[in-house]
Design a protein that fits this description.
Cytochrome p450; 18 helices; 10% strand; binds protoporphyrin IX containing FE
Amino acid sequence: MNCCVSLWGEREKVGGGVLERGLCVQSEMDGRLFLQGLETVAFVCVSVLLISQLWPKNEERAKINTRLPRGSYGLPLVGETLKYMASMMTSAPAFMAEHRQKYGEMFKSKLMGAFCIITTKADTIKWVLNHEGKQFVTGYPKSFRKVLGEYAALSLHGDQWKSTRRFLVNSLRVELLRERIPTIEQAVLENLNPWAAKESVSIREETKTLAFNVVAQYLLGSRLKSGPVNDSLRNDFYTLTEGLFALPINLPGTNYRKGLEARARIIETLERDVVSQARPVGDEDQYADYMDYMRKENLPGTTEELLLEKTRCHVLGMLFAGHETAASAMLFAVKYIMDNPRVLNELRAEHENIRISKFEGGSLTWDDYKNMRFTQSVITETLRLANPVALLWREATEDVQLNGYVIPKGWKTVCAIREAHHDPALFDRPSEFNPWRHEQEVMNPAKKLPLLGFGGGPRYCPGAELARAEICIFLHHLVTKFDLKSCGEETVSFFPVPKFSNGLQVQVQERDLSTRISHKIRVH
Ligand code: HEM
C-alpha cells in the first residue's frame, strides 16, 4: 500500500485507495517530522502551564474554604445576637474582649441573622473601611435598612450612594458650618438658659433635645422649633433607634415592629407638620434642596415617587445620624467631666480664657471654636470610651484574603470599633478617661492614635465637624455657667446606644461670676 504522510500527518483516502498528496521526498518528510515534534512540544508546554496555573488555584480555593477564622455561630437562627446584646446592656461589655481572647483579633460569628467575620483590630478595620466600593460595600443588617430606609446613605452603595454622598458632603461643608456657628450657639443657649431655674435636669433629655434641634435647624430651618411636634418626633426617634438593631421579627410588640411603626409616624409628622408648612424667608431647606439636586442628578429609573421616598430617607437618615450620636457624645462628656475634676479644671480654664477675651455677652466665633484644643481632646477621648456607634457593618463583594484568613463573598464584616478603642497595645490603661493622651498627636502626628469614632475611608462621617462644633459650644457654656452635682449613682449600658439608667440626673447651680477663674491651669 502506497501511503504518504501529509503535511499535517494525515493519510487521506479517497474511495478504496490511498490518494497521494504532495511530494513524498525525504527532505519534506524530515520537515514534517520536525514540525510534528514542535507541535507536540508546544502542546506539552501549554498543558503543563495550564495545569500549573489551574492546579494550585483549585488547591488554593480548597484552602480558602477552610481558612475562616475560628469562632462560634451560637444558637440556631439567632446566632450570638442575644449574647452580644446582653453583654452591651451591662456597664462593662465583655462579649468582644472574651471572643478576642479566645479566638484572636478576627473571629467568625452570627449576628442579627447574618454570618459574619468580626474584626477588632484598628489596622484591619481601617483597611476594611478604606476598601469601600471595592472589596466591601455597606452591609448594615436588614432591620437597619428597613427601619432607616433603603435610600438612607448608610443603606446605599454604588452610584446611588455617590450622588447622595456628594450632596451630604457639600451641605455639611466647613464654609457653611462657619456661618452657622451663631445659630448653633443660639440653640445651645435656648437649651441651657432655663437650667438656672431648675433644681435638677436629665442630661440625657437635655442633650437629646439640643442635638435634635441643631440638626433639625440645619436640615429644615426654623420650621421644627421646640414644641409638641418636636417632642413627639424625638420620642419616635428613640423607638426607631431601638428597632434598628433588633432581630428582624415583624410581630406585634417586637422592637423591630415598633421601629417600623415609629418610622411611619415620623414620616407622617414630617410631611404633615413640617415640610408642607410655609417656609420662613431666608430659611435653609435641605428637604427641597435635596429633591432638586437629585432631580438634576437624574439617575436612571428615578420617578417622582422614588424621588420622594429618597428624600424621606435622606431627611430621616440625617435626623437620626445627626442627633442620637451627638447627644450621646455630649451626655458622656458631661459624665466624664463630672467624674474627673482635673479635666473640669483644665476645660474651665480654656473656656474662661475664651470668655474673658470677649466683650460681655459676645458671641462665639469660628476662631474661638478652633481655639478649643483641650475640649477637642475631651471629645475625642469621650468618643474613644463611649462611641455611640459600636459596630460598623460591611459586606464582602468577593472572597477577601485578610490577615491569613478569608472573608467569603457575601459575608458581613463587622468592625468592632469600641473594642479597637480599648486595645491595650495601643492605648495605655485603655479604660481610663485621659484626654491628655490625644495632645501628643498634636505635637507629633507620627504618634497619631488609631481613632475610629467617626469611621474612616470614603464613608467617614460627613457631620463630624458639625458634631464637634456643637459639642464644643455646649461645653463652653456649660462649664462657664454652671456647677453640676450628681443626684446619685446610675448604671451605664451601651445598647442600643450608650446611656445611663436614670438619664444622668444632675443638680445644677449657676456659677457665681466672682469665683470664675481666668487663669489657665495645666495639670500633667
Ligand atoms: C458625635 C457625633 C457623631 C458620631 C460619633 C458619628 C459617627 C459616624 C460614623 C462612625 C459613621 C460611619 C458609618 C459607617 O462607616 O458605616 C457616620 C456616618 C454618617 N454620619 Fe455621623 N456621626 C456623628 C454625627 C453626625 C452628624 C451631626 C451628622 C449630620 C448632621 C452625621 C451624619 C452622618 C451620615 C449621613 C453618615 C453616613 C455617611 C455615608 O454613608 O456616606 N453624623 N457617622
